[in-house]
Amino acid sequence: MLPQTITEKYIRNMNWRDFELFVAKVLTWNDYDAIVTPPSNDEGKDIVAKKNNITFYIECKHWKNQIGREYLEKLVGAAARDGIRNIIFVTTSSYHTNAKSYASDLNLQGLFHLQLLDTSDLLRLCKNHSNITFPKKSTSSVKAHKPISSISASVRIIKLNDVISIKEITETNPHWQLTYPTVIILNNPIAQKKINADLSKSINWLRGLYEKGEFYNYGGKYASHYYDDKVLSISIWLYRYKKGACGDHSFTWDTVYDLSTGDRIPLSKYVMVNANDLQDYYPTHSYSESGKYLEAPNKTIIDQVPDNYFIDKDGKSICIVFPSYKLSGGAEGHAYIKLSSGNISYLNRKNSANQPPQKRQLEAKINLKSSKFEAYTKANNMDFFVKNEMHDDADTVVFQSNLKVEGRTIPLGIITDNTIYTIIRVQLGAHVLNETNKPILLNYLDKLNRSFKVFKYVIAEDGSIFLDACLPSTNDSFDAEIVRVVLDVIVDHLNNEYKNIMKQAWE
Q: Which of 137, 395, 441, 454 could be disulfide-bonded to 367 (CB atoms 3.0-4.6 Å)?
């Protein structure tokens, strides 16, 4: 039995494995479904938990030494590989300032929600949960991690560059051997999840047909043709076999992804080409699936431009892919027409000249507010801001920092973009709102929102609390001094109200 009152001494006297099990139990008391990973080969996390259909990765350290940034980075890396945004680090010691700053920066960016818990936090979470049986190792009610599939499979990680890696999965069965990719994108789980969902469509489609008994066996492979820190060009080749003559059918998915958004990049972004153009190039620019030049391709009529294409490994040529038997015999696979950089330049000039003139040219949207604010910070020796360029369509630039409020360090960001809005955003806490405190906390924040005009409290979907101030302006009318004034107002307000808000949340 657990003691009537769980104390710091009780937690301190645990061994590391009991501590992991204890943390999992505490999570279950707070409405999480907790799964403890095996003692070894945990792939960077000790516990996988779910609450309200949100998945969390949790790392536990029963240590005396401070936790530095490097330990958080390892956990974040494990989460990023799997597309997980919600992370909890638990320790019996304390956190170094570089770890706290790292967590604040991540949370402010909005890509991850990283919570740092210590013994005092565990004691708070144990409230009202006395006399609950602590599971022994041999009879633990905490679920053990189990493999999700009985298929013989191997996995290897292939690092392409500092931004992207390929998690290559090979599945083997008496009826198939399938090698396919998933991507790992550093610090961008949203794009990673979107790309992997798209890549899985072709694999799941083929598996679905196999399970319906439409063919005897199947297989597949892939190739990453070209990549840099902005794009990934990848192909997946699949085949299925129905017994008998001409029973082999192959399919290809050739796609170029934007690594910042996870979206497919259309062919038209690189080259303006039509079916007549491809008809002209086809006799002298055709290649087999293996890259062999086709000296005498089949005579054929090209009546449309395929969606499938890839960027050649030189990073300059575009290869437009056709189905088997279209440009050549079936033995050549999915043949393609290769357009060099010179071909592309010519086609873009020719076809853009044939486009109807635009009725009007829209003024390009640019973000000049960021440069004004940066100049202001330098002129006023405000060296506590870190500039972070998001490289998105809105030309977003975030100036990150921290506030000291009631002895706590909380993340702050000044968000500028090419719209008329500048946002001052402060994160008061991650995953604060729950079913227990919801009525009281929402009522309290609603009263605050009615009392102040310049800023408002916002609850995110995951229960995190933000304070936002929206300052509209054009590039010309933007005044960094106004940002500073409003920020001072926010700081004064939080010095008075932060403790009250947290009191509503935890009591």
A: 395
Give the global pTM: 0.44
- Write out pLDDT tens, residues 76-122: 888 877 778 899 999 999 999 888 888 887 777 666 789 999 998 88
Write the DSSP assignment of 402-433 as a string of letters.
Answer: EEEETTEEEEEEEEE-SSSEEEEEEEEESS--
CATH at residue 469:
3.30.1460.70
Say if residue 368 is exposed, middle or buried (CB neighbours under 10 Å; 0-12, 13-18, 19+): middle
**For position 111, what pLDDT does the model report?**
67
Task: Name the DSSP letter for residue 2.
Answer: -
Q: Given the DSSP bridges, would you call strands 309-311 and 286-287 parallel, antiparallel or unpaired?
A: unpaired
Tens-digit pLDDT profile for residues 378-420: 988 888 898 888 777 678 899 999 988 888 889 999 999 888 8
Query: Is there a single domain that holds both residue 89 and residue 13?
Result: yes
Total Cβ atoms within 10 A of residue 118:
15
Q: What radius of gyration, in Å, describes the C-alpha atoms of the chain?
A: 28
For residue 121, the enclosing domain spans: 8-144
User: How many helices (H) and strands (E) in the chain?
Assistant: 11, 22
Q: Count structural domains, the chain.
A: 3
Q: Distance (Å, rounded) from C-alpha 51 to C-alpha 22?
A: 18
Both 112 and 42 in a single domain?
A: yes
- 103 and 159 share one domain: no
